[in-house]
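Quick question, first post here. What does this chain look like in 3D?
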Amino acid sequence: MAIVFGASPSPFVRKVRVALAEKNVPYELRPVLPQDKDPEFRKMSPLGKIPAFKDGERTLSDSSVICAYLERVHATPALYPSDPYDYARALWFEEYADTAIVQVVGPKVFLEKVLAPVFFNRPTDQATVDKAVAEEVPPLCEYLETQLTGDYFVGNRLTIADIAVASPFVNYGHAGYQVDAGRFPKLAAFVKRIHARPSFQSCLGDERKLLGLAA
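> Answer (accepted):
Ran it through. C-alpha cells below.
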C-alpha cells in the first residue's frame, strides 16, 4: 500500500490525498511534520517538506511531483487534460494555488488563527489576519473569479487545477473564513461544490478532529 508522509491540515498533503481518493488508490497516512529529523523521511524529502510519498520501493517528495507520478501509474480517471493547452492551463492553476494562494492563506490566516493558539501556545496576531483577509485574499479571488467559465477551471471535468485551488480554501475555512459570495459568486460556489466531493470530505473530518474544530 502507498504511504503519504505528512500532516493532514497541509494543503499540499491534502492535494495528494484527494488525488489518491479520486483515483481510488488505497494509501496510509503517516503523520510527519515539516523539517522532521526522522532519517527515513529526510531520505525521501531532502528539503524536509511535506508530503513525501512511498510506493513500494519508490519514493518521491513534492505534491506536484507526486500527483504527476500518480497520473502516470493510475491513468484513470485522468486528472490532467490531454489537450496541450488545457494541460498547461491546469499546471498553471496548480502553481497559482501552491504559491500565491498558499502563501497568503497559510502563514497569514490559518497559522495565526488556528495553529498559533492551539499548537504554538501564543495569541493570534489578529492585525496580520485582518490585513490578509481584507487586502490580500480579495485580489486572489478576483483573478480566480475571472477564470471560471463553468463548473471547473479547465474543461468540463475535475482536474488537478480544481483540486489544487480548492485545497488551501479548506484552510481558510478552518480559520473561520469563506470566499465572499457577494463579491465572488462563481468562486464561492466552486469551492463549496469541490469541497463537497467525497475525496475532500474524507479528509475534513480527520483534520477538524486534529485541530480541535467543530465538525
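The helical segments are 11-22, 39-44, 63-73, 84-119, 126-147, 160-174, 185-195, 198-211.
The domain at 2-73 is CATH 3.40.30.10 (Glutaredoxin).
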